Amino acid sequence: MSAQLTKTHSQRDTDRLVAAGWTLKSEFRVAPNDEPYEYLLAWEHGGEAAYWRAKTWDEQGCKVCRQQWLSRGEIPNRLGGANGGVLLYRCDTCGTFWEETTREAHEITEAEARKVFPHLFQEAENHA
């Protein structure tokens, strides 16, 4: 039986596929110490591979924060950044966390935000 293969371009998507049962086979980098730019995964369980479906734009956040992204290119409550220029925002209306990369902005869970931006949560907890 041969494995089914897929690739992703983000750690977030890779983590979701690994949680669904995929096996990470390789990370591709420009230089050895660079962040990966592509991930290769294999489905080695037989049968149909498990996938997750990303939320559509209209399923993310609320109407207020989606409109702010479309009209302003950001939402007002920018919490900070992480390596690689990734930024974290939180909607004041619905509380949704948004991750902005060089390619797009998308909703992330609080657990994902804490994983990518642990220093922002530590700073907030230290000041509480």
- Main-sheet strand order equals 4-5-6-7
- Characterize the biggest β-sheet: 4 strands, antiparallel
Low-confidence stretches: none
- The SSE string, one letter per element, is EHEEHEEEEHH
Number of domains: 2
Number of helical elements: 4
Taken from the alpha-carbon principal axes, the silhouette is globular
Instruction: Summarize model confidence as the mean pLDDT.
Output: 85
Tell me the number of strands: 7
Report the radius of gyration as a whole number of Å: 17 Å
Tell me the fraction of residues in β-strands, as a range. Answer: 25-35%
Helix content: 25-40%
Alpha-carbon distance between the termini? 55 Å
- Decide which structural class fits the backbone: alpha+beta
Characterise this structure.
This protein has 128 residues and is of the alpha+beta class. It folds into 2 domains: 4-43; 57-127, no CATH class. Helix content is 28%, strand content 26%. It is built from 4 helices and 7 strands. It has helices at 11-19, 63-72, 110-116, 118-127; strands at residues 4-8, 23-28, 38-43, 78-81, 87-90, 97-100, 105-108. It has a 4-stranded antiparallel sheet with strand order 4-5-6-7. β4 and β5 form a beta hairpin. α3 (110-116) crosses α4. The longest helix has 10 residues, at 63-72. The chain is globular, with a radius of gyration of 17 Å. The protein starts with a strand and ends with a helix. The mean pLDDT is 85.
